[in-house]
Amino acid sequence: MQDLTALLFDKDGTLVHFDRTWGRAAGAVMRQMAHDDAHAVARLEAVSHYLADEERFLPTSPLVSGSSAHYGPLWAHALGRPADAGFLAEIDRLFAAEGLLNLTPIGHPARVLGELKVAGFALAIVTNDAEENARQQAEALGFLHLLDAVHGYDSGFGSKPGAGMVAAFAESYGHRPHAMAVVGDSAHDLAAARGAGARFILVRSGPAPVDDLVGDADLVADSVDDLPEILGVSLGKASSLIGENAV
Fold this sequence. Notes:
Elements: E1 6-9, H1 18-33, H2 38-48, E2 50-51, E3 56-57, H3 68-79, H4 85-101, H5 109-118, E4 122-126, H6 131-140, E5 149-151, H7 164-173, E6 180-184, H8 187-196, E7 199-203, E8 219-221, H9 227-231, H10 235-243
Parallel strand pairs: 1-4, 1-6, 4-5, 6-7, 7-8
Antiparallel strand pairs: 2-3
Helix pairs in contact: 1-2, 1-4, 2-3, 3-4, 4-6, 7-8
């Protein structure tokens, strides 16, 4: 069994606390997009499955796993605007600013990624956020310098659940797909991993229930804080553990 050589992390729900970051940011973004029109804000909240009083999204929200390319047309329809590139760029710009203001990590990602880097893993982010937003947040949380790549929905490789981001990393950096693992909290992450021939480590730290994903995961952790212990026993042992359920 090949040892793992690379770990590709989802961002939101895996490294960044989804509701504390985006739940808080979303209300401000919706108000700005709607120019404080209460009826327009209400329409955005409805199509986003957003609970304004609690500053969080329902698990059914298209924003939980999708990019602005996915939910943007819903917002455009709610606001009576065309869902063109300028509209999506406006959403991304506002979310970038509000996301940084409310940025909340899950656990201690800079420390964890530092330990994994020292252990010899190549590291990357594969996210349905915009690449520049992801880079800004990684820099703010102190681990951008540890990453070999940051792939967002707009990086040219498609978005999850497609496998393009994962496959592109394997090709660009010379990793065999089965020697890589995607670390994430959603079915989109699982599909991206499997579609590229990579393994999947499920973390339970996201906003949606994951019980139905446990049986398809190669490893399960409560959060990324657990990964050094799980993978650091020895790289050979880690590969053996993660390979037991690999497809």
